[in-house]
Task: inverse folding
């Protein structure tokens, strides 16, 4: 006995009807059985990308719905922080991914995502380097293409007490330039601003390059309040130097 499973979504029903009239399609025998499974789908409520004000104190996600064959099914929602390890949007500036998933009765999955950008309020680059930036980066003095330019958003987060955490100390070389995503970003670098006017900064220690590993050591940070830019130089233990130019954005 053969067991057939027909997978349907709302767009495939018409095709099934037309196929059933085609004499070239194998017919079911008297001892054969068939089943129908409807593909699940995720319907987002609201926009797929949300840009919050930097002064946000609370966030209510618009949510989503999951359906299969026109009937609502269980929806699973998870949130991931890109750079600073928060567990909810209220934890502060970051780029968050809200993932929605569902399974139909045959455990066929469906997924949907929402990007939530919570920017850091911009400092004046005289008393504070906090803010939201785009970045262009060169490795050993070379910028291969426009894919390594004007990427973002990047965040320099104000931790208080003149301490700042940088979202990606490679300025997006691997995350954006190579298109490898945030798991290859250099997160966790914290700088202490001893004197911004004289570009005096110290690092709280080396940090690794995401999935690649290796240590990244802070070399220098040069701040230009007039152009709202700063230049970050970082040495990677794999014998590369990254120089990224960060430009504040509203």
Result:
């Amino acid at each position: 006995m053969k067991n057939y499973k027909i997978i349907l979504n709302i767009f495939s029903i018409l095709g099934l009807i037309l196929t059933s009239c085609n004499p070239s399609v194998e017919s079911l025998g008297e001892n054969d059985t068939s089943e129908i499974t409807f593909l699940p789908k995720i319907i987002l409520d609201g926009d797929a990308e949300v840009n919050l004000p930097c002064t946000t104190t609370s966030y209510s996600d618009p949510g989503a719905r999951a359906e299969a064959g026109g009937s609502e099914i269980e929806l699973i929602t998870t949130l991931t922080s890109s750079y600073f390890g928060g567990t909810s949007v209220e934890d502060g500036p970051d780029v968050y991914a809200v993932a929605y998933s569902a399974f139909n009765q045959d455990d066929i999955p469906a997924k949907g995502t929402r990007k939530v950008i919570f920017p850091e309020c911009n400092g004046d680059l005289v008393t504070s380097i906090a803010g939201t930036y785009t970045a262009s980066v060169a490795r050993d003095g070379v910028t291969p293409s426009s894919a390594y330019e004007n990427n973002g958003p990047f965040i320099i987060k104000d931790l208080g007490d003149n301490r700042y955490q940088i979202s990606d100390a490679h300025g997006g070389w691997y995350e954006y330039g190579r298109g490898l995503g945030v798991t290859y970003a250099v997160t966790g670098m914290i700088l202490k601003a001893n004197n911004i006017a004289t570009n005096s900064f110290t690092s709280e220690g080396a940090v690794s390059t995401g999935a690649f590993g290796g240590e990244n050591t802070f070399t220098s940070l040069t701040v230009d309040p007039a152009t709202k830019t700063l230049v970050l130089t970082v040495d990677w233990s794999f014998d590369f130097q990254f120089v990224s130019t960060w430009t504040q954005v509203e």
